[in-house]
Amino acid sequence: MDQNLVDTNEILKTLKKELMRFMLSYKFALEEINTKIDILKQEFQYFHDYNPIEHVKSRLKSPESILRKIERKGDEFTIESIQKNIRDIAGVRITCSFISDIYAIKDMIANQKDVTLVECKDYIKNPKPNGYQSMHLIVQVPVFMSDGEQKVFVEIQIRTIAMDFWASLEHKIYYKYDKEIPAYMKKELSEAAETAAQLDRKMESIHLEMNKLKELNHDAGHIEELQILNERFRLPAQFLNLKRNT
User: Fold this and answer.
1) Which residue, 18, 141, 79, is CA-closest to 70?
2) Active site residue ranges
3) Which of 26, 40, 82, 223 has its CA 20 to 30 A from that of 72?
4) What Å distances lie between residue 76 and 9, 12, 135, 240, 243, CA to CA?
5) Contacts made by residues 205-209, CB under 8 angstroms, sequence distance 24+
6) Mean pLDDT for the chain overall
7) Direct distance between the N- and C-terminal alpha carbons of the chain, in angstroms, rounded to an integer
8) Cα distances (Å, whole numbers) of residue 232 to 27, 224, 225
9) Contact at 8 Å (CB) between 193 and 166?
10) Shortest CA distance to 163 belongs to which of 216, 101, 87, 73?
11) What is the mean predicted confidence (pLDDT) over 135-150?
12) pTM summary value
């Protein structure tokens, strides 16, 4: 067999193995983040009787998409360069009900010991010129594989339902017109973004009022009965007396 062909096959095998390990590290990082988000959802449901997370969507860029982005950026075509310069290979989008949920979830994720917050862009306090609003985080999470630990970048976008609705439609219109949106449509999209922001602010106000009412009702209620993991049970009087005396 031709030695050059043998060498080429060995190079291709090695490259395939490296690319597989590279993509798997981002897949596992996504799974790590999704697990953390699921735990937060369940904790909120049990302790606050409320779930701030409406939807979670994750995606992994394809190798073709990664290479196209590297080419556009003018970076080197090496795995080391990709790991350093492309930070949105693994992406998670969290959709919340209210603006306050966004900041609460951002803090809960960033404060976890094995999560490193690398970058935070707050497009809610500082919307983009076109009206786009969202919270963008770049975090690093450790992924433990057979050859050791890797710190992997994950992009996390957190937004309300209204923000997500606007961004989705703007994206569709943007590509329908091949990125050349007519001036009048840009103006209408900007106005729609402000309308969505007004809706978010109004719903946030209603949410705060409902929380106040809920706290009042809770204080006036009885604590002798608890519900844990969908099971209700009554607390013994001795236990209640003990807690009152401590």
Assistant:
1) 79
2) 155
3) 26
4) 23, 19, 29, 66, 64
5) 207/97, 207/98, 207/100
6) 83
7) 83
8) 39, 11, 7
9) yes
10) 101
11) 91
12) 0.80
Residue 70, token pair as written in the block:
């590297």
Residues 159, 163, 165: CA angle, nearest 5 degrees = 120
3 state SS for the chain: CCHHHHHHHHHHHHHHHHHHHHHHHHHHHHHHHHHHHHHHHHHHHHHHCCCCEEEEEEEECCHHHHHHHHHHHCCCCCHHHHHHHCCCCEEEEEEECCHHHHHHHHHHHHCCCCCEEEEEEECCCCCCCCCCCCEEEEEEEEEEECCEEEEEEEEEEEEEHHHHHHHHHHHHHHHHCCCCCCHHHHHHHHHHHHHHHHHHHHHHHHHHHHHHHHHHHHHHCCCCEEEECCEEEECCHHHHHHHHHC
**Tens of pLDDT, residues 185-203:** 888 888 899 999 999 999 9
pLDDT tens digit string along 1-19? 555 554 556 555 666 777 8
- Return d(Cα 190, Cα 39) in angstroms, integer: 36
Closest CA to 156 of 137, 142, 135: 137
